[in-house]
Amino acid sequence: MSAQITWLCFGLLGLLPFALGFWVSINRGRAGVSFGYPDDPTHPLHKAVRAHANAIEYVPTLMALTIALDRMLPGMVTMWLVVLATLGRYLHAAGMVTCRSLNDRHPLRVAGAVLTYFPGLIMAILVIVKVL
Known about the structure:
The protein is mainly α. The protein has helices spanning 2-31, 44-72, 76-98, 107-131. It is elongated, with a radius of gyration of 16 Å.
């Protein structure tokens, strides 16, 4: 069961950049902008582009760590780390696209960052420890 949940999260991580990219396209159409984005942290297109970019920064690394850790340490530890990191990525994205302004702290964004950093760091350290 833990392997199924781990790989479900892997798929959800892979889905996130595509969903956010689609959201960028929708907002480009609404704003009539085909290149770049307004330099206004309250503009929906600005928020969508930044949410997508942020996902692109973290999702590939989390996916690579998931593969490595699942091969080295399959089971509940890997599953829970991947579940938390996946939840973190989705919370962070939701906080970015729903906040009033990217200049403001949003609770979902903060929770998402914490749930990305800590599981991600633990995953990376576990991979290093397992190799040594």
